[in-house]
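Chapter summary example.
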Amino acid sequence: MRLLNRVELIGEVVAKPELRHVEQQIPLCFFRIITARNWNDQEHREQWEYEWHQIVAWGRLAEVCHAYLHKNVRVYLEGMLKTRVYQDSQGHQHTIAEVIASDLIILDRFDWAEQDHLPDLFEDELRQSMPYEPPVTPDAWILYNLRQQQS
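The structure predicted for these 151 residues follows.
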């Protein structure tokens, strides 16, 4: 029997990601995204439901997230769901579910003219992975990136 722990989300970043370094300077990045779903109720009124997701990225992906993500940027991400228990300052234990990111695609248009502050470490890689004129829909953008990765 096969088991699967896979998460795919399309959402907006809520705030600038926080970067930390843990054991032996391994980069660790925390950020949250918001997702939404909508439907029509019995009276044909549009209803919305929102979910906030805690995202964790490690290593090079953590550095990329910190360098390029900010509030309101739309992203597609893949990862796995992980729960952990932590203790707050009052000594109470809490359980939190997090998505451990394994891949991320920025869905919004990227304006190179405004990005003079980009770190050289990522500039060439990002320029190669993002076209100047992305497709109109997020689904098309994801498919475009998947095709680029395969070629």
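To summarize the output: DSSP finds three helices and six strands in the chain.
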